[in-house]
Predict the structure.
Amino acid sequence: MAGNSFGKLFKLTTFGESHGPAIGGVIDGCPAGLKLDFKAIQHELDRRKPGQSNIVTQRKEPDTVEFLSGIFEGKTTGTSIGFIIKNTNQKSKDYSHIKETYRPSHADYTYDKKYGHRDYRGGGRSSARETACRVVAGAIAKQFLSTISIHAYTSSVGDIYLEKPYQDLDFTQTESNDVRCPDSDVAAKMIDKIKSIRKEGDTIGGTVTCVLKQVPVGLGEPVFDKLHAELGKAMLSINAVKGFEYGSGFCGTKMKGSEHNDLFNKNGSTKTNLSGGIQGGISNGMDIYFRVAFKPVATIMQEQETLNTDGNIVKMQGKGRHDPCVVPRAIPIVEAMAALVLADYYLQNKTYNM
Amino acid sequence: MAGNSFGKLFKLTTFGESHGPAIGGVIDGCPAGLKLDFKAIQHELDRRKPGQSNIVTQRKEPDTVEFLSGIFEGKTTGTSIGFIIKNTNQKSKDYSHIKETYRPSHADYTYDKKYGHRDYRGGGRSSARETACRVVAGAIAKQFLSTISIHAYTSSVGDIYLEKPYQDLDFTQTESNDVRCPDSDVAAKMIDKIKSIRKEGDTIGGTVTCVLKQVPVGLGEPVFDKLHAELGKAMLSINAVKGFEYGSGFCGTKMKGSEHNDLFNKNGSTKTNLSGGIQGGISNGMDIYFRVAFKPVATIMQEQETLNTDGNIVKMQGKGRHDPCVVPRAIPIVEAMAALVLADYYLQNKTYNM
Amino acid sequence: MAGNSFGKLFKLTTFGESHGPAIGGVIDGCPAGLKLDFKAIQHELDRRKPGQSNIVTQRKEPDTVEFLSGIFEGKTTGTSIGFIIKNTNQKSKDYSHIKETYRPSHADYTYDKKYGHRDYRGGGRSSARETACRVVAGAIAKQFLSTISIHAYTSSVGDIYLEKPYQDLDFTQTESNDVRCPDSDVAAKMIDKIKSIRKEGDTIGGTVTCVLKQVPVGLGEPVFDKLHAELGKAMLSINAVKGFEYGSGFCGTKMKGSEHNDLFNKNGSTKTNLSGGIQGGISNGMDIYFRVAFKPVATIMQEQETLNTDGNIVKMQGKGRHDPCVVPRAIPIVEAMAALVLADYYLQNKTYNM
Amino acid sequence: MAGNSFGKLFKLTTFGESHGPAIGGVIDGCPAGLKLDFKAIQHELDRRKPGQSNIVTQRKEPDTVEFLSGIFEGKTTGTSIGFIIKNTNQKSKDYSHIKETYRPSHADYTYDKKYGHRDYRGGGRSSARETACRVVAGAIAKQFLSTISIHAYTSSVGDIYLEKPYQDLDFTQTESNDVRCPDSDVAAKMIDKIKSIRKEGDTIGGTVTCVLKQVPVGLGEPVFDKLHAELGKAMLSINAVKGFEYGSGFCGTKMKGSEHNDLFNKNGSTKTNLSGGIQGGISNGMDIYFRVAFKPVATIMQEQETLNTDGNIVKMQGKGRHDPCVVPRAIPIVEAMAALVLADYYLQNKTYNM
C-alpha cells in the first residue's frame, strides 16, 4: 500500500528520488491503439521543468522522458508503459547541512521517524521532482481524452488575486506570461510580487484554478468514489497543497438552498453552475471547476533555526536554487492529475453498459 | 470499482437505498480481539439519526444496528463484520413528484443518465441515509484507535462563524447544544439562524472543523496516498461537501515561507502548527486539524422550477421532512470518516517494521 | 486485505459464520439494467443446499436469499447489491467437543493461532456454509453472461472415474442423478461408492470438471492476471480443493511440443484444444475446460485422536450430519466461481476499446 | 486492471517487451531498513538467464539488473524500488515470419484479437523474458524472508519422474546439475531426454516441485485469499504452466477422510502432512509443498502449419535459439513467485495484531 500508485483502471505507479540515477513510472491500463504525440508529452514536461523562466528555480534539468515499453510503431499496445527520466543534475554536492538536520516544514523528520532512515539528498522521495512522472502520465491521459479540454491557471499569488470568473478569461493567454495567469495585468503584478519575495530570500503561496470542459455526463462513482472526492485527493497529493474546493466551495457554505440550487434548462444543462459540474459525485455535462491552495515553499534563503538529529537546535540556511513560488510550475501538474482522474473514470464508466 | 468501498486494510463496503428493506455494510480487516462497546456504537448512530432535536429533520427512524457476523463473545474475530440497519420509515408514499422529475442540484439527473434508470424513492442510493453505515464502521474504528481523540464541531452556519481557534475551545461542550458548536454564545446564534431559515422554507450551508489529537508520528503514505489527501477524499465523499482544507489551508496561500514554516522544539514537536500535524503526507505528532465545507441542502420547501423526464420544465416543491442545515448531523459522520482513515493508515504503518 | 472479497470490477464481498444469525454478501460492479430471474438464483442455491438428496448431509436449511438493495423494479441499478441468507439451523447445540479441541485437518488450529480466538460453532467463518453466498453472486454473474454456457460435473469419486472426454457427454443429464455425473452408469457406481463410504463413517474425495463454452475471444489479462490463473485461484479458494489443471494439465507435461501445439483452422479456431481455450492467459474462443481436485471431507464419524487447547491428545468423534463426499454439492459452487471470474474479465475487457 | 501487478502489500509491477530497450519493474511496499545482498539478487537472475548450460536456449543475454530508486546506502528506504534490465540481444532481426503469422499455441492470435495490434518481435509482452523481473523482486522477497527456506527442483521431464518424496532429497544437490534435479541419477536421465528431444527439433514438458520450510503459523487469509489459492495463481501466471496441486493434490481425491486427516502431535505439529502445511487457507507451521505442471515449449524447430493474418494456412518453422524444455530455467521463477506470495502474506499478517 506504499502509496506510489494512482488510479484503478488507468493506473500510474512511480518511483525515484531527486538524486538517484533516474525517476520513472509505469502506466498500466492505457487502452491499446492510442497513437501518441511524443512532442506533446515532452512539451508538458517542459512546462514543469526547472529553469524555464526567471521566476522559477534556476536549476537546469532537461527532463527528457524515455519510453521503455508498451508502445509499438507509435501506438500503445495495451500493455504496461514503462518510462524513465534521468536525473542529470545529481552532482555530488555537500548535503551535510541536511544530512544531520530536519528542515522545518519539510518531510525530513516524518520520513526519518516512519522509516528509520532516509535518502537526505535533495529531499529524496519527498522531493517534488517526483511530479515530473505525473506529468508524463497525465500527458498521455490528455491524449486519450482528446475531446475534453483541461485548463489550469494561476488564480492568486499571495494576496494578488485574479478576481474575474473563469468564464471571462481567455485561456489561450495562460502561457503568454511566466506566471501562467491568463489576465496580463494581474499576471504582471503576480510576477512583481514573486520577484520582490525572492529578493527577500523568502517564498510565497498561491492558488491554481482548473476548468474541465466537455466532460461527458456520467463520469464518477457514487458514495465513496465521487468524482470530486477523487479530484480532491489527486490535488491534495501534490506537494505543498493545503486545500481543495470545487463549484461554490467554501463560499457556498454561506448561501441558502434557494440561491445555490442550479435550475435546469430543457436540455438538461443548468442555468447556474454552483454545483461545479458534478451532482451526486457524477459529472452532469456542465464545466467542472475547482481551486487548489498551495502553501509557500518551505525552503527559504533566510537563516532559520532547526533541529538536528542529535536533538539540538541549530541554525541553517537554504542552499541551492529553489522556487520562490511553486504555482507557475504547478499548472501542468494540476492538469496532469485532473487528466489521470478523468481517464480513470472514463474507463470505469465503460463497465456499466450492458 | 463501483465506489461502494472505502479503505485498503480497514475496509468498509456499504449497500442500501433509503427506501429499501435495509441498509448495511461489511467491515473487512478489523483486527481480531477488539472488545466492542455496542452502546458506544449505537450512541454514534443516535448522534446522526433524524428527529434528534428541533433543528434537524423530524423524520423518525430508530437506526438500530444489527451485527450479523465477525464478532464472537463480544470480541472481533478478524473475519468480516456484516451489519444491517433496517429502514423502518419506508412507508409507501407518493413519489410521483420525483419519479418523473429531476430535483435541482440532486443526483437524480446524473444517476438516470449514468445507469439508464434509478430508484427514485427518497434519492435511492444517493440519499445521505447511506452515511449511517459509515458511522457504524467509524465507531468501531474509534474503539480500535482508543488512544487517539477525534473531535468535530460546527464552526460556521451560513455567515455565523465560530472565530476562536480550536485550542481555545472546550470540546466537552460540543454535545451540550443542538447545533454541536462548543461555544454556547455562537451556538445560540447558529440555532436561531437555522430556525429562521427553516421558517422561510429554505436551507443553509456551514462548515465543520475536526481535530485529531495524539495521532502517532508516522501515519500516512508518501506520494499519492498522503494522509491529508485521503482525509480530503474521505470528507469530500460525504454528501453535500464542497471543500476541504487542513492546517493553514487557503489562508496559507497568502503567507510567506518565513511566516509559514513551523520551527522545531528539541523534542521534535513544533512551535507553531501551520502544517496541521502532517508533513510530506505523514503525521508528525502534532494535532491534525481540518475544515470541511457543506453546501445548503438542495431540498427546499419553496416552489422551484425543474425538469421532468419528458424534457419539460415544471414546478415542484419539496415534500416531507428535511434538514434545514446538514451540519449538526454531519458531525458524527466527519468523525467516523476520520476514524476510518486513521485506522487504515495505522494498519498500513505496521507493515513497515522489519 | 482480510480475504473476504473476490473480483475487481464484478466484485463480491461476503460475511457470515455458520452459526451466526445470517450469512450474506455485497456485489459491487454489476452493470445496471440487468433484469434478474430470482427463481434461477434460488434454483442455484437449491442445488447447493444441504438435505437435497440421500448422498449429502441431511441437515435441513432452506437457504433462502433475501436481497436488500441494488435492485429496483426487478432490474439492477448499478449500485451495490446487498443480500443475506438467514441461518435457520443454528440451534444452541453442545459445542464443547470442538470448543476445546482442534479437529484434525480443519481450520480450528490455524484460526486460533492466527487470530487468538475463534468462533468454534460449526467451523465459524471457515465453514463451507460461506459458499452459499458465492452461489448467489455467481447466479447473477451467469445471468449477466447469458450467452456463455457454464457446465460443471462430477468427473470422479474416489477411484471411480468418468473416462469419457467432455465432448462425448450430454450435459442435460448432469442433474438427472444425485451425484451430478452426466453418464448414468458411472453415476450409479459413484453413488454406490459414496453410500458404502458413509456406512463406514468415512468420507471420500473426488474431482469436478467444468466446461465453459461460447466464451468470447479476448478475456483475460496478460502477465499476472492470466485467465487461467484467476480461474485457478477461484477454484483453489473453495473449501477442500487441493489442485487445479486446465487444458492438457498435468498430462501435458509428458507431451512433446509437436504433439501439444494446437494447429489453426482458417477461421482462427484450432484443430485440437490442448491449450484449453486459453493462450497467453487470454481466451481464444475455443472451449475452456478445467479440472478441480477435492480432498475427502475432514469430519468423519469414526473416533480419532486430536489435540485439545490444553495441549493434550484426546479422543473425539464427528457429530451431526456431514457430507460423505463434497463433490455433488460442489458443482454449483464451481460454476458460480467460474461465472464470477468470467464476469470480471468481461468488464475488464471493455476498458480496452478506444 | 491490466494485469501487470502482483501482490497487495509487497507489490510488484512489471513492464517491458522482449525486444524493447529494457524490461523492468517497481517493487512497492518492501519494508524499510532491509540491507540488500546485490550479488544474491544477480545470482538468482543468473540461474534464470539464457545460455547458462547446454540444455537451455543458447541465446546470450547478461541480464544485469540496475536499481534506480528505493535503496540508500545499501538499505531499502521504504519507498518504491524501480529497476531495469536492459535488453542487449535486441538486434534488428527479420521478424517477417511472425509479423504476419500466428504461431500455434502462442499468444500471437489472442493478443492481436484483444488489442487490435501487437509487438510481434519475439513475442513482445507475452515473452517469458518478463519473468526476469519476477526473479529480481523474488530475490528481494527471499532476503526479506530470511528465516524461511524456499527450494524448487525439477521433479519430472516428460515421463521421467523423480519418484522419491521431497523428504528423501538433498536440496544442496539441486544446483549440481544442469536440469536442477537433486537426484543425480534421475537428473542424468532427464538431461539425456532433453538432449534427445532437442535433436528432434522438438520440445518436452515437465513438472517442478517446490518446498517451503519454516513458514510461520498464520500466513494466509481466509475465504477467497487462502494461501494455497494465491500460490496457485502465482504459479499459473508463469508462462507455460497448466496445473497446480499442493499437499495430497489430485492423488488426495482418491483417499478416504480417515486416511487423509493429519493427526496432531502435542506441540501442534501433525504426524502426517497431506494438508501440505496449510489448513483453512492458513499455514500451520508444517512444510508447504506443491507441484507445478509445465507444458512443452510451443516453439519447435520442425515445420508446422499455421495461420497468417490474411486468413490463410501457411508453413512456418521456429527460428532462433529456444529452450527444448522450460523446466530447468523455471526453477528460480517458481521460487521467486513463492517468495513474493509469502512476503505479501507476511505483511498482511502483521495487520492482525492489536
Q: What stands out?
A: The domain at 5-350 of chain A is CATH 3.60.150.10 (Chorismate synthase, AroC fold). The mean pLDDT of chain A is 95. Chain A touches chain C through 17 residues (CB under 8 Å). The radius of gyration of chain A is 21 Å.
